[in-house]
UniProtKB/TrEMBL annotation:
Protein's organism: Isoptericola chiayiensis
Any one Pfam family match given in the protein's UniProt record, by short name: Transketolase_C
Matching CDD domains: TPP_PYR_DXS_TK_like
Stretches that traverse the bilayer: none
Superkingdom of source: Bacteria
Protein name per UniProt: Transketolase
InterPro entries: PDH/Transketolase, Transketolase-like_Pyr-bd, Transketolase_C
Residue intervals of the Transketolase-like pyrimidine-binding domain: 9-173
């Protein structure tokens, strides 16, 4: 008899597939929507009447409802596109969840440019920076559908404020989801006097791009699916006493800069952050691949940045 395996789906499809079993296992979990996802969740809604709440196109109210559910002892999972989940109801995140000190799991789709064909309204490269600016939040940026399942199951059993950022871009293989930084690829050449080669930290779905970009470069590659709060202890251990570090993140460039600087504050470090540039506003639709290339987040662009840090002028 063959073993039962979980189908390999994209992150969004896996999230919808996970919700039914999740609600079965956790009687205190409710799902709050603002239209997006209601069609995909129809079987879950039928199986769990009253526990999937669609407030209509009212994203501020969606967060307010989640806050009320949390105050009543429920565990809300809130879902829509990133700009409608973070940017539009940002005041409600601050007040209805944060100021009341209650938890929820916010699950976004769209990432930075997944919905590029929908225009700027559906793009949110600043979402992680915004959530990270609020106290008491944990941010997960998975790179594979299996990581989505693991993170969702773990966070459903907590009462924390969590932002889970899903993306169409994904890595070929899942990585650990324990909140730590993990070394994925080591090198034997390019070591400094203390035995530390330059390090590239890939966040979430950027890992395969980083691996391709640095395949023939003398750098080590590490990974995290939880950029906030950052695992400073492991980063310090991997970076060494004189760090040469590149952080590659699939959202606003420098989002992790303050956390990285704090982790390495006592060390003479050369650090660069590669992400969506802060001073670029693309006004053409294009595909997600077009946007990645335009922002230097494809393998060629990431390679240029890593190589420039290794061989400064």
């Amino acid at each position: 008899m063959s073993a039962v395996t979980t189908p390999v789906l994209d992150m969004r499809a896996r999230f919808y597939a996970d919700l039914g079993p999740l609600l079965d296992a956790h009687p205190d979990v409710d799902v709050v929507l603002a239209v997006i996802g209601s069609g995909q969740m129809a079987p879950v809604t039928a199986r769990h009447p009253g526990r999937v709440i669609d407030v209509g196109i009212r994203e501020q109210a969606m967060i307010g409802v989640a806050g009320g559910l949390a105050l009543a002892g429920r565990r809300p999972i809130v879902h829509t596109y990133a700009p409608f989940l973070v940017e539009r109801p940002y005041e409600q995140l601050k007040l209805d969840l944060g100021h009341q000190d209650v938890g929820a799991v916010l699950v976004s789709i769209g990432s930075s440019f997944d919905a590029s064909a929908e225009g700027r309204t559906h793009q949110a490269p600043a979402d992680v920076a915004l959530v990270s600016a609020l106290p008491g939040w944990t941010v997960h940026v998975p790179g594979h559908a299996d990581e989505v399942t693991a993170l969702l199951q773990a966070e459903a059993a907590t009462d924390r404020r969590v932002y889970l950022r899903l993306s169409r871009q994904r890595n070929a293989q899942p990585q650990p989801t324990d909140g730590r930084v993990h070394l994925v690829r080591d090198v034997a050449s390019g070591l400094d006097g203390a035995g530390h080669a330059p390090l590239v930290l890939a966040v979430g779905p950027m890992l395969d791009t980083v691996l391709a970009a640095s395949a023939d470069l003398p750098v080590r590659v590490a990974y995290t699916a939880t950029p906030h709060p950052l695992d400073a202890e492991t980063l310090r251990a991997l970076a060494g006493p004189q760090p040469v570090l590149t952080v590659v993140e699939p959202y606003l460039e420098g989002t992790s800069a303050a956390a990285v600087a704090a982790a390495l504050a006592d060390r003479p470090a050369r650090v660069q952050h590669v992400g969506v540039p802060r001073d670029v506003e693309l006004r053409r639709y294009g595909t997600p691949r077009d946007h990645a290339a335009a922002h230097g987040l494809d393998a060629a662009g990431v390679r240029r940045r890593i190589a420039a840090l290794l061989d400064p002028p």
